[in-house]
Amino acid sequence: MTLDGLKQVTIDYYVNLQRIKKADTGNNPELEFQLRIAKNKLASLGIPSEEYEM
To answer: Do the beta carbons of residue 14 and residue 52 sit within 8 Å?
Structure first.
């Protein structure tokens, strides 16, 4: 996989987690943990996650 492909997959994953968070009405510690991991991956790829937050 190319670096651009990896970036796109990571962005898509983060956006999907954001959609789940928006639809979730309760407290979900696992979702919050996955969001932190995805956000760190985006940062390590040089992508600001703020651009993809809902």
So the answer is: yes
Q: Which residues of 34-48 are buried (b: 16+ CB within 10 A; e: fewer)?
A: bbeebbebbeeeebe
Question: What is the chain's pLDDT, residue by residue, as a tens digit (54 residues)?
Answer: 899 999 999 999 999 999 999 998 889 999 999 999 999 999 999 999 988 887
Dist. CA 28–CA 46, nearest whole Å: 27
The pTM of this model reads 0.87
> Angle at Cα 50 formed by Cα 48 and Cα 52, nearest 5°?
95
Which DSSP state fits 26?
A: S
